[in-house]
From TrEMBL:
The chain crosses the membrane at residues 21-51, 71-91, 112-130. The keyword Transmembrane applies. This is Cobalt transport protein. Keywords: Membrane, Transmembrane, Transmembrane helix. It comes from the Archaea.
Length: 144
């Protein structure tokens, strides 16, 4: 199975890339912040539900593509580390790619959905950090 860009007109495709990056970063921090099996199971269920809602295909295709994605990421990281001095990305080079309309040359104004996703992601992450510090909601821990 190949990991590649899939064109579409879903809510996820219409979001600003910055909003997607902020939500992904906040989600990643939240996953590694707690050692709760229930929290991790809820997170996995949320990912699979979101994939189903945006019509990304059946959940099994996401699981199958995980192996190809992991291999691709490791190969890119190894190649980038071995050739650090020759990595150059220019906006002119990106404009002549396979799909030039996907570049940041076409800036769009953030919508209400973009701003609400960014604000919600930041608020949830901040709440979880404060909860971890203050201990408001006792979550079961896997290890002490």
């Amino acid at each position: 199975m190949r990991v590649k860009y899939q064109e579409g007109n879903s809510a996820l495709h219409r979001l600003d890339p910055v909003a997607k990056l902020v939500a992904l970063s906040a989600f990643s921090v939240c996953i590694f912040l707690f050692d709760s099996l229930a929290f991790e199971a809820l997170s996995l269920a949320a990912i699979l539900l979101a994939a189903h809602l945006i019509k990304a295909g059946p959940a099994i295709s996401i699981v199958r593509s995980r192996y190809a994605l992991t291999l691709t990421i490791w190969l890119v990281v190894i190649q980038a580390i071995s050739r650090v001095d020759c990595l150059v990305v220019s906006m002119e080079g990106r404009a002549f790619g396979y799909r030039p309309r996907r570049t940041f040359l076409h800036m769009k104004k953030p919508t209400f959905a973009d701003m609400s996703i960014i604000a919600t992601s930041i608020a949830i992450t901040a709440f979880l950090f404060l909860d971890r510090w203050a201990g408001w909601i006792p979550l079961p821990r896997l290890r002490v």
